[in-house]
Every structure is written in C-alpha cells, then in structure tokens.
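User: Can you predict the 3D structure for this chain?
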Amino acid sequence: MRINVEIWNIFVVSMLLMLLYAALNPACSVINTALQDSDTQLTSKLGYISMSLMSLVSIVGGIIAPPLRTVMGYRSIMVFSALLHMAVYIGMIILTEWAVLIGSIVTGLGEGIIWVVIPNFVTITSEHRNIERNLSYHMFIYNFNGIAGNILNYLCLDESTAITDSSRIRYFTVCTVFTLLASLLGGVAVCSPSSSDQFSSLNEDSDLRLISDIEPDTTKLLPDSDTEKTIEYNSEEHFPQTLYQRSLAYIRNQASGHLQSVACTLGQFPL
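Assistant: Here is the predicted structure, written as structure tokens:
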C-alpha cells in the first residue's frame, strides 16, 4: 500500500509537537509547586524566573532557526530541537538552582527553533492547494496535547497536596521519555524533493506558475531580454526570500506571544 507523503509528514510532525507539549505545558505549571515542596532551599521564585527565561530565550531560538535549518536540514534540526526540550526536566531532576536555570534556557532555544521549523516543513512538503488543509490537520492533532498532558499529570503525581521527591523524579522522568519519543518521530519525517536543501526543482515550478499566470497577450509584449531577467530573478531569489519572510513572520508572532507570557509571569511574581 502506497503511503501519502503529505499525510505521513503531517501525522509525524504533529505527533512530535503533541508529545513535546503534552509534557512541557503541564510541566511548566508543576515546576513552581515542585520547587516549593522540595526539601531544598529553592522556592517558587526560581520557577517564575526560569519560565520567564524560557520565554525570552525562545525568541532567540526563532531568530537562529532559519540559518540552522540551512546547515542541518529539516530532519536533523527537528530531532535536535526536540531533544533540547529535555533540559528543563533534567534540571528539575537534579534540582539545583543553576541546573533549573540552564535547563530553562536550553529548552527555550528548542522551543523557538521548533516553532519556526515545523510549520515551514508542513508548508513546503505540501502541494500548494493543500497547504491550508494540512496546517489545519497539523493543529488538530497538536491540540490533543492538552488531554494527554492532563492524563500524564493524573497518573504520575500523587493524590496528596504536596509533590514529594519521589513523585517529582518520576514525573519529570516520564516527561523526558515523552521528549525522547518525540525526537525519534523527527527522524522518520519524509523530506520530499520540494523540501530538500536545494530548492531548484521547486523554484522551477514556482517560475512556471508565475510566468503562466501572465496573460498570453501580455507575454508577447515582453522583450526576450526582460523575460530572461524575470526568470533568472525568480529562480535564484524569489523562493528563498519567501521562505525567509515566512520565518520572520513566525518569529514576530512567537516573540509577541512570549513577551506576553513573560509579562504575565512577572505579574504573578511574589514581592
């Protein structure tokens, strides 16, 4: 049976994000309580600081994502950025101040990278007429992270009012396993010819669409030299600029969202 590459890619990267955030989203709410209930001198203030750092550093991750993707390719960067999400869990298992802060910074980088890379991957591995449909499927699967995350919390945390050391270690170990499973999914995504690092074939298709959109009479009025210049410009510059602009748009959206998260977190900071 032949597998539809578009559907396969959507399923794989959507499950990747779903597993990552089924662990990370509820873990962010557990961190403050776990710090407060621990036997160490650490308090929930460290949790507020670490969450703010994670949100701020994710903006940097979004900025460095496009050049990193160019160097590493889509599959490698998805695996790499997914693995970075483990850092905050390892920090909470070790439970020292520096471990928690460094873990939050590394995880923030992974967040920023993956939220630029995956939407781009879904877009360029989809046929033009299917892009909106595929992005809808992608977000549909991703949004199941809320259900999976709540089930994770219910099964891993004790029913007592405090989070003990044993339940904390068990909880963040399970979160680490979720992240490892997500990173494995990044390795089985199919990079079709249109999503390879060499965009030549996609550029040619793009040029054909652009030239064919011009009315026949208008095309006849164009001098041969002008037509050649248009094709040369489109094939060498048009698509990479579009990809870069799309990345910048995601960076701007992520930056504004994370700055709001920082503001909300600081608003809860105990004086």
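The chain has a mean pLDDT of 76. Residues 15 and 142 are 7 Å apart (CA to CA).
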